[in-house]
Amino acid sequence: MISFFVVANFWYEIHYTFSFHIMRAGKMTMVCDFAFLANLSLIPVMTKWIMGDLSVLSVVCYGIVYFLVQIFELATEIVGMRSSLPHIKTFRKFWGRFSWLRFIWLFLLNLVFILISFVQPRLGMILYLAFPIINFVMPDNRNQRTRKGDK
């Protein structure tokens, strides 16, 4: 049941990306999306592993897979927006910088979670499982901002 929330959170995020940011998906967008889905399919297996055998190895492997899912989600978004908005160079430049900041943030956050997992595997597991569940359950203000801007 826990992995359902983790996968649901990623599905919601990628749905939002394809609905509002990617107007036309090229071949590279689909390759990135396939890599995203391939890694996402490992989340239930990894969740079962850390629930059944809580160890440093299981939590670190979960962390690596979780990081890969996040990176391929970001790559899908970047490549998709590039192919959808080739004519808006200023926006692409801004989005590229923002994406690098997101990449650095994701890398550092996952690095901290993995380092915590080496010392306290249980705490690492809680952090990795709680983060997407909280993100999924929390209200999303993006739709409200979009609706207010349309009026």
Automatic annotation (TrEMBL):
Membrane-spanning ranges: 56-79, 100-119, 125-141
Keywords, ordered alphabetically: Membrane, Transmembrane, Transmembrane helix
Domain of life: Bacteria
Protein name: Hypothetical conserved protein
Species classification: Bacteria, Bacillati, Bacillota, Bacilli, Lactobacillales
